[in-house]
Amino acid sequence: MSSSDYKQTNTIAAVATQASETIAVRIIGATERLCLVIAGTLLVGLVLSTTLDATLRYFLGAPIRGLLEFTTDFSMPMIIFLALPSCYRLGGNIRITLLTQRIRGRPQAVLNVVVQIIVAVTAFLMTYALLQQLVRNFELGSMRSGAISYAIWPSYAAVFFGLALTSVMIVMDMRNAASGTAGTFAGDVE
After folding, report:
1. Which of 104, 119, 167, 178 is the most exposed place for a label (fewest CB within 10 A)?
2. How far apart are CA 141 and CA 156, in angstroms?
3. Could you write out the DSSP letters of every residue in 60-77?
4. What's residue 189's pLDDT?
5. φ, ψ for residue 64 (rounded to 5)?
6. Closest to 126 measured CA to CA, from 100, 162, 94
7. Which helix (H) or strand (E) holds 26?
């Protein structure tokens, strides 16, 4: 293979890789936005149902049966974890930059990479543990008993999906950690 053929092959491979990464980023971005819409819809429903519950409790002495359990065990975890990918993209997570602000150059790049690896490993370990919980609850048909009974696996599924999506976003941002740039998914935020 001649030098020009090798360069042309590398160029084609680079363009194909960049195109597939762009498609992946678009799919992940669309999925993240869908998760945010679902979380927002659940939040509005939660606010309305809680308001209705308080009104019924105060005026009629008849609260909505099982709303507290449904809210704390079902709705709130779904809202939090389906919104997590958007929170990551917006840089809304708490970051302790006391050390990284004082270090410059190569040591800062190394520290950024190490921290990103620790975050990615932690996120994937949490995702894996949650997947095991989801499968166990689904297979056992686990139900939440109280004022009302309902399956708890859908809540685990939403939490798993939100955390898994965030984990993928964290890994895709790893290449930006060394340069200290905002990341693949944080392009619209400073």
Report:
1. 104
2. 12
3. HS-PPTTHHHHIIIIIHH
4. 41
5. -75, 120
6. 162
7. helix 3-60
Tell me the whole-structure pTM to 2 decimals. 0.78
> Positive or negative CA dihedral for 68, 73, 79, 83?
positive
Rounded (to 5) percent helix, strand, coil in the chain? 75, 0, 25
Residue with tokens 């490993």: 121
Give CA 181 to chain center in angstroms: 20
In angstroms, the Cα distances linking 68 to 39, 50, 76, 79 are: 18, 9, 11, 15
Inter-CA distances, 110 with 84, 106, 113, 121, 168, Å: 26, 6, 5, 17, 21
Classify residue 134 as exposed, middle or buried by CB count within 10 Å of its CB (0-12, 13-18, 19+): buried
Q: What digits encode the pLDDT tens for the residues 51-73?
A: 999 999 999 989 888 888 888 88
Q: Taking Cα atoms as reference points, which of 113, 120, 122 lies closest to residue 176?
A: 113
Q: What φ, ψ does residue 150 adopt, rounded to 5°?
A: -155, 155
In the beta sheet, which residues pair with residue 143? 151
What backbone phi and psi angles, to 5 degrees, belong to 52?
A: -65, -40
